[in-house]
Amino acid sequence: MQNSRTRVAVIFGGQSAEHDVSCRSAASVFRFLDRGRYDVLPIRISRAGVWEIGTDTGTGAEFPARPARSGSLIAALGALRSVDVAFPVMHGPFGEDGTLQAVLETAGVRYVGSGVLASATSMDKQFTKTIVAAEGIAVADGVVLRAGDDDVSAADRARLGLPVFVKPARSGSSVGVTRVDDWADLEQAIVLARKHDTKVLVEAAVLGREVDMAVLEHPDGTLEAGPALEIRHGAAFFDFDAKYTPGAAEFVIPAELRPDQRELLAETAIRAFRALGCGGLLRVDFFLTDDGVVLNEVNTLPGLTELSQFPQIWRAAGRTYPELLDLLLRAAR
């Protein structure tokens, strides 16, 4: 009897600073994928860039103790051609930035999420802001520091004010991000950000409630925005520890909002999805201010751990984790 299950390659790990977060996200995906519908091929990319092909245990993945470096990518490409769809559970550079998506497209493999261009532009915070601002969506004021630029002019300092946030242009999970309350600390913040990217953003702080929106694309192309999630925490900002330490932050879903605020957030999140040309899924992080909404950043492959905002939003909307995964795989292109 022919196997009617869909064969899925779950790709995770990677060379970015978010390697561990990716592994945690993948662990949740392995645990909740319905084995009655899917055969799973685990593919892990090590910190050194080695592609490791594993076996599915039913709730997780097992890998050889000493994977061979030689030909690992070639072997992985051969394995990828045997699957029906790939699920990149990757965060950060070399996974969320179009690099992996280009490999999958070259191999002719359907995959979950945004394409090469949308992944690349959405990963770069400067490009994201340029694109959505052209659509009339408000973004924080800021300065771009490229290689060789190590300071902010007096005029820009006066315009931005304090505090400012210094962040790598192409990173996530608040890796390399510093809140600067004194210009004397700017140099050190830039040095930290440059450990993760040669391009650095210095952004004015926005006073407002931190609200996240999740957008899903259905197989027929319909876009749906989930209920708003408000982040409440006691940290100076929603940093890595606050994101991934149990109990460090509280997610209020649905956020306590007026109907007009809910409608504005949902409409703006979908506008951002379309403006960036995204596919499958997107998390859009906003500041809700007295004057409206300000887009902070977007994530084309948001965290999928049990602590992560994206699955919690859809759980609050009544969609279970297995149902969420199934919808994402059916919408793959």
TrEMBL record:
Single GO biological process annotation from the record: regulation of cell shape
GO molecular function: ATP binding; D-alanine-D-alanine ligase activity; metal ion binding
EC assignment: 6.3.2.4
Presence of keyword RNA-binding: no
Subcellular location: Cytoplasm
Active site: E18, S173, S308
Gene Ontology CC entries for this record: cytosol
Reactions it catalyzes: 2 D-alanine + ATP = D-alanyl-D-alanine + ADP + phosphate + H(+)
Residues engaged in binding Mg(2+) 1: D285, E297
The ATP-grasp domain, residue ranges: 129-330
Positions bound to ATP: 125, 165-167, 173-174, 203-210, 296-297
Known pathway: Cell wall biogenesis; peptidoglycan biosynthesis
InterPro entries per record: ATP-grasp, ATP_grasp_subdomain_1, D-Ala_lig_Van_CS, D_ala_D_ala, Dala_Dala_lig_C, Dala_Dala_lig_N, PreATP-grasp_dom_sf
Cofactor, free-text remark: Binds 2 magnesium or manganese ions per subunit.
Annotated positions binding Mg(2+) 2: E297, N299
Keywords, in A-Z order: ATP-binding, Cell shape, Cell wall biogenesis/degradation, Cytoplasm, Ligase, Magnesium, Manganese, Metal-binding, Nucleotide-binding, Peptidoglycan synthesis
Signal peptide bounds: none
Function: Cell wall formation.
Family to which the UniProt record says this protein belongs: Belongs to the D-alanine--D-alanine ligase family.
HAMAP family assigned: Dala_Dala_lig
Protein name: D-alanine--D-alanine ligase
Organism whose genome encodes this protein: Actinoplanes octamycinicus
